[in-house]
Amino acid sequence: MKKRIKVAIGISLAAVFAAVGSTAASATTSYPEGGVWNYGVKWGGGGTDFVYSDYFHGSRSHKASACNTGGCNATGWINGGYWANAPWRVAGTWGNTSYYDVR
């Protein structure tokens, strides 16, 4: 089963953090299908903004993908017991998505 979650943060909040040089994040941790999934958007400013999807399962093969409106960064299938980490640059304040898959 493929899980899709859209992650985004409002443009006004992003503008505020960019103006003061702070880092803002829209981050979530959940526990789907017996694993751990960390996903979200990290706003660092100066070209360091990224969307990410990190998934861990102790025994099943899995993968992670992070996408913007122009493309995706996806891991291959990772053996159980290891993290699948997929960071990708953001497209803007909207259109950033994170995925995981388990088999």
Automatic annotation (TrEMBL):
Keywords: Signal. InterPro entries: Lactococcin_972. Residues 1-27 form the signal peptide. The keyword Lyase does not apply. Pfam families: Lactococcin_972. This is Lactococcin 972 family bacteriocin. It comes from Leifsonia naganoensis.
